[in-house]
Structure formats: structure tokens, C-alpha cells
Design a protein that fits this description.
alpha/beta
Length: about 525
């Protein structure tokens, strides 16, 4: 257990939220469990219609809720007064509150314009820090903790059930029950194996249905008609609706394989289907010494876009890159493909095919200033943001992460395309101002230069700005939870939380009173 974190009382309320789609994270289910004298006395669930009743495949796969589930349900503003009655004046807990419940609730209440005080939710993950893991939040998910305590995990991602299960692990802490992490790892391995088998079974069922569709198509074909020239094994690899590959072949005797061919030596991506079979196009590209890839990235020079079933994700990635200034040539349709394969008079200039993009970021202080995110109170512009935390924060870093969570931000400890803001520690910013690069900057440069991501457009926010914003929120809104975290974190840095000139609360309170 984190020694600097709050110990639960015997009376509290646990909450859990499920949301419908990225990036809105609009709440579609709210659940809670009321605990009195370390016993669960009530659970409650509300199904809520999210914004535009829109879901995506990723969230549906998590909780199983769909637009049909909530089409007749009330919206959050309609049910919030009822929910708030359970929350007002209570000690609130949630599992992984800093990354989910706090930012999602803040974001939804702000979106709907629902008046509310700063949300103070304690995180039960802090009760179960594992000494055998590298990161503080590794291996302590809800399922992990339940198994470690010998408790079942049933109906996971139902908000009411999750609230009750979270309450059980908090009660176990109150009763000083010790977790068995070895048991937890064994149970997780078994649970993951069961999930893998279920996934394989579902895939087999889906493939069987696809084969039935294919057989039906053959059986319904008149005997005096040509049998469709389609390849049966593709049914096992693709959705039936995608089995639309061409049947024609490349005339390799006429193929233009000279180094003047627009595609010669280029980075090429194919999406969709042409009249020429995909495998034949790939052989032609090999003959031209082209470099083939499955993903459109900043290094892509040419995209071949078929007349049927072009991938929406690839087209979206292409549009994003072109919008960001990357010059990527597009060869669209059967006619243009034939033109570029066989016309010996063409050159790269005819299709405006660019040189390969080079990504060599040399991060300087001017780059930092250009992409610096301005976080100025009272506009909480990092609520709902995906923050990347380098492993270079001085003092008790988990306290700082919790402060960011209380401001409604999500935390990441690895760089990935979903990151929207990179948090730079105080020492990193000081070094940049002196034109020095520390480990944080060098790791960022290395990741960026090697990354194949096309949607990464992070801004940089300083640890100083976040602490300054938190201080103003404490002073002007009386956020006691954030204040306790703020004071503890400054003390871990050796900074006087009351009287320090830059971070002290006393000066901020005097300025606030003076300007009221």
C-alpha cells in the first residue's frame, strides 16, 4: 500500500463508469456500491444514453453495450440529480479512479454543463502496490486484485458489478487481508487462456458461416454459367464481403521495370482491389524493386487505391498525412494502374511521386516553445487529455500522477500514438533552456524517429504549469484532496508547500484575496 495515501474508512461509496466511444468517452452506464460498517448494503446501476447514442467497436467489445441497449434510456443530465444524492458528502472510491472515473466524469459533467464541485475520488489501486513490478500500476487491475484475495471476478465491466467487486477489495484492506500475488498471476494466466480459446471458437464459427455463404453462392449459380473465379481459401482469411480480389494477371512481357518507372524503388502501399489480382500486383512491385508495406506512414511515397473496398483506415491515414503536409502520390483505379505498369514513357514526375520522407527530429528549445501547451487557470485544457509521464520525475512521482488524474487527465507510461501531451519534468525544461538534452528528450527523439505512427501530434506541457494550475484550483475552489497530494509532493521535493516563492500556497492565497 502507498504509505502516503488515504486509508479507507468503514463507510464509503464506490463508483464505476462505462463509456461509449472514443474520443468523447460519453458515459453509457454508471454504477455504485454503498458500504456501511465495512459491509455492502446497496448496489445501483443506471443505463445512460451517451451523446448521439454513438458507440464504437472497441468499447462494445469491452462492455457489450450497444445503441440498442440505451436507445430509450435517459441522458446523464436527466439522471445526475439522482446519482448525486448518493455521492454528496460521501467518501468516494473507484478502481483506477485517476485514469478513468475522475477524468471521464469531469469531461462528461463539463460537456453537459452540469454544475458540480471538484470530484474527489480515492483510487483503490493505491491500496495494492506490488513490490515485484516495475511500474506502480502494473498487475493491480480489478481482476488481479480480486484473484489475489481469493475473490471471483464475474460480470466484469458491468458498472454495478465492478463497483461491488471494488468495494470487496477495499473491505479486504480494512480487514487487513494480505493479497497472494502468485495466486493472482496463476488465475490471470488461466483466465487469459480461457479467453483465448473462446476467441478462437468464435473465429471458427465466423469462418464456418462464411464458408456456408460461399457454398450457397456456388449452389445458387446456374450450371450453364461460369463458376465465379474466386479462391476458396480466401474465405478463411477475410470477411466474405472483402473477397472481391481481381482475377486478371500482369503481362510481365510488357511490364515497365526500368528505373524510370514511377514506382521503381518507391515505398508503396496497396488498399482495395483492382482488376489485376493482388498477388500479381505484388509480383510486379517486386520486379520494380519497390518496397511494400501494409501501413501508410510518413515514409510512404505512393498509395495504390483500388476501385473496390479501399480500407477506410488507410484512406483516413492518407488524408491525415496529406493534411499535415506530406506529399504522397495516389494512383487510383484500374486505368491508372495499367498506365503506370506498362507505359514506358512515364516518369516519377508524371505522378508527382516525392522523395521518401525523412524523420530526423533534432529537438531544441525552439521546438519546445513552438509546441508548448499553454495551461492557464481557470481553463482546464488537459481534462480528458492523454499524458505521457517519463520516468524522470523527482520526489514521490505517483503523487504527481494523482494530481494530474484529479485534473481529469489520463496517464501513460509508454509513448504511443494516442498520447496528446508529453509532460516534461522540471529538470528537463531547465536543461532545454540551457540548450541541453537530458534522457527524456533523447528518448522522445528516438521514439519519434523510429515510430511508424501517423496520428501522433503531441504537445508539451511542463510539470511547473501543471503544479501552478493545481495550486490555483486548490486556492480558488478548496479542493482538499488535491491539496493533500500537492503538499505531500512538494515536501517530497524538499519544497516548503506554504512559503516557497514559486509553489507556495500562502502567496497564492494572498494574491487571490487581494484580487477578489
Amino acid at each position: 500500500m502507498d504509505k502516503n495515501y488515504k486509508k479507507p474508512s468503514r463507510d464509503f461509496v464506490v463508483i464505476d463508469v462505462e463509456y461509449a466511444a472514443f474520443p468523447e468517452q460519453s458515459i453509457c452506464q454508471f454504477g455504485l456500491a454503498v458500504v456501511r460498517d465495512a459491509k455492502i448494503v446497496k448496489t445501483q446501476r443506471w443505463n445512460i444514453q451517451p451523446c448521439e447514442n454513438r458507440y464504437d467497436d472497441q468499447t462494445i467489445a469491452v462492455h457489450g453495450m450497444t445503441p440498442e441497449t440505451t436507445k430509450n434510456c435517459p441522458t446523464l443530465p436527466q439522471v445526475w440529480p439522482e446519482i448525486a444524492e448518493y455521492l454528496d458528502g460521501q467518501e468516494l472510491w473507484a478502481h483506477n479512479a485517476a485514469s478513468v472515473e475522475v477524468p471521464v466524469l469531469e469531461k462528461n459533467l463539463t460537456t453537459y454543463g452540469i454544475p458540480h464541485k471538484p470530484i474527489q475520488i480515492f483510487d483503490s489501486m493505491r491500496l495494492y502496490i506490488r513490490p515485484d513490478k516495475k511500474y506502480w500500476n502494473d498487475g493491480i487491475g480489478l481482476e488481479n486484485c480480486l484473484y489475489a484475495l481469493g475473490l471471483p471476478c464475474e460480470n466484469h465491466h458491468d458498472a454495478a458489478e465492478d463497483s461491488a467487486m471494488c468495494a470487496q477489495i477495499i473491505i479486504a484492506t480494512i480487514n487487513k487481508q494480505k493479497p497472494d500475488w502468485k495466486l493472482s498471476d496463476e488465475m490471470m494466466e488461466r483466465a487469459n487462456e480461457i479467453r483465448r480459446k473462446l476467441k478462437e471458437e468464435a473465429r471458427a464459427v465466423r469462418q464456418a458461416k462464411q464458408l456456408d455463404l460461399f457454398a450457397d453462392a456456388l449452389c445458387s449459380t446456374s450450371l450453364d454459367c461460369d463458376i465465379p473465379k474466386r479462391h476458396a481459401p480466401t474465405i478463411f482469411e477475410k470477411e466474405f464481403s472483402e473477397a472481391e480480389d481481381g482475377i486478371d494477371e500482369v503481362d510481365f512481357n510488357k511490364l515497365n521495370t526500368s528505373n524510370r518507372n514511377p514506382l521503381f524503388g518507391c515505398n508503396v502501399v496497396i488498399t482495395g482491389f483492382f482488376h489485376i489480382a493482388r498477388r500479381q500486383i505484388l509480383k510486379a512491385l517486386d520486379a520494380m524493386e519497390a518496397k511494400r508495406s501494409n501501413n501508410i506512414t510518413k515514409k510512404t511515397q505512393v498509395v495504390l487505391i483500388g476501385e473496390r473496398n479501399a480500407g477506410p483506415k488507410k484512406l483516413a491515414d492518407l488524408t491525415t498525412l496529406i493534411h499535415n503536409g506530406y506529399n504522397i502520390a495516389r494512383i487510383t483505379g484500374d486505368e491508372q494502374l495499367d498506365h503506370v505498369l506498362y507505359d514506358v514513357t512515364l516518369t516519377a514526375k508524371d505522378f508527382a511521386i516525392p522523395e521518401p520522407a525523412k524523420k530526423e527530429l533534432n529537438f531544441t528549445v525552439s521546438h519546445f516553445r513552438k509546441h508548448k501547451h499553454s495551461l492557464v487557470f481557470p481553463v482546464n485544457s488537459i481534462a480528458g487529455a492523454e499524458l505521457y509521464f517519463p520516468n524522470s520525475f523527482a520526489g514521490n512521482a505517483p503523487l504527481f500522477y494523482q494530481i494530474c488524474g484529479n485534473l481529469g487527465a489520463f496517464g501513460n507510461w509508454e509513448l504511443n500514438p494516442q498520447v496528446t501531451h508529453v509532460v516534461l519534468p522540471l529538470s528537463t525544461v531547465t536543461g532545454l533552456q540551457q540548450n541541453e538534452k537530458d534522457k527524456v528528450i533523447r528518448e522522445y527523439e528516438e521514439w519519434y524517429n523510429k515510430s511508424r505512427a501517423v496520428t501522433f501530434s503531441a504537445q508539451f506541457v511542463t510539470q511547473h504549469d501543471i503544479l501552478k494550475f493545481a495550486r490555483e484550483r486548490i486556492v480558488q475552489h478548496g479542493d482538499d484532496v488535491t491539496e493533500n497530494l500537492y503538499i505531500a509532493y512538494l515536501e517530497s521535493l524538499g519544497i516548503d508547500p506554504e512559503n516557497d516563492f514559486k509553489y507556495g500556497l500562502a502567496v497564492a492565497r494572498r494574491n487571490f484575496e487581494k484580487n477578489r
